[in-house]
Amino acid sequence: MRRLVLPVCLLISLGLTSTLRSAVQAAHERSAAVRVQLRFEPQDPGGYASAHRTHERITAASATRQRYGVEIVRVGLMPKDTSQEYEITFWNSIKDSQYASDYEAYLKAYPNGRFAPLAQARLTRLRAEASKSPAASATSATSTMHAASSPAAAAPTPTPTPASAPAPTPQAKTTPPPPAAQTKTAPASAPPAAATATATAAAAAAVAAKANPAISKPGPHDIQDCPSCPVLIAVTPGNFTMGIDNDDASERPAHRVTISHSYALAKYAVTVAQWNACVAASACPRLSNENNASPNAPVRDLSWDDAQQYVKWLSKVSGKPYRLPTEAEWEYAARAGTETRYWWGNDMRKGTANCKDCGPPWHAEAPNDVGSFPANAFGFYDMAGGVWEWTSDCWHNSYKNAPNDGHSWDEPNCQTRVIRGGSWRDGAGYMLAATRFKYDSSVRYEANGFRVARDMK
């Protein structure tokens, strides 16, 4: 009897092992298929967009794991819409970065995160490397002084501010610090503050005008409400299909939107020079020169709260009700009457957008100056690539129950806002007219900027 029991037990053991091996192999094959389909971009800001696009595939992998009762190699994401998921995908998107601002953005969002010590160490190293060339900095400062003394001086370079401490939490809104006060002896008869601010803004606008003729010379149908105001284009009311029915739930369902109100949208994203006019009027915070060196580049490293300060100041100096565009207004202008994936067609065309694999001109370290790429059919520049652009809407995970009249979709005490358009650091897959993304309204990120809008009454 014993002679029979041992062989039978061995056969049963081998059979179970074979079955388990087959289950594990099948599960790994399904997991590998999911990993192959993942669309992670190295420079995806925060990794949130990738998380949304791959959620359904990750869910399928999870179901496979449950079915076979075995552990599958993880695809790198936590369950959807969890703080752990966002932190991990954020870190994965910047972990190999050589930009100090990337680690600053992470520490602002996750001051006590699991990667905070490593982020702080890398930030310290990058700052130390940057400070090893004092001679170069001195030479640059001397050149700037000579340029400033010239009658045809270029735009003044903003004084870089010391690196600020990380914000307590991404939800805790903090008012950006005002520009550092300068000690000057007051004249015997000081002009009124409003007059001084207006004169300063006009001087900054004149500098910007000399530096960029495309901005300084509005076309016959362009609108410019004040010398320091961005150039606007009036948008004719109409209707369009917003969103797209693809694998990203946040862009579904595609739905018809009718914009019956007239509005105007900025021809270009707000530039560094235009932002500095607000800084000169002590109405906007001074930004780091590291990310805002070129006066005609789109201003960036801004939060939604920063953009609100700018439109408030712009409304005051122009007398017009400036604001951020709604998400529907932005997409309507970006599509420019088309229903295709990109505003120029269904296929990527080199040289049409400022992104990392969209063709020249392109530079890895910073976006090109505004207007460096062709305008769409409505005359708007850089609606694809350049910088992500803030809109007024609160983030919703899909378009279910979205307004169909083009107005802002807001919520009380909203902490997360919508950004659109992609950036120079992203791939062609983010240049689609329907691509949308979310970001904490109080957190700055070096690839985030904005353009302004106002109603036409």
Automatic annotation (TrEMBL):
Its EC number is 1.14.99.50. Residues 157-180 have a biased composition (Pro residues). Residues 130-194 are annotated as: Disordered. Keywords: Oxidoreductase, Signal. Residues 1-26 form the signal peptide. SUPFAM superfamilies: C-type lectin-like. It comes from the Bacteria. Residues 229-454 form the Sulfatase-modifying factor enzyme-like domain. Residues 131-156, 181-194 have a biased composition (Low complexity). One of its GO terms (molecular function) is gamma-glutamyl hercynylcysteine sulfoxide synthase activity. This is Hercynine oxygenase.
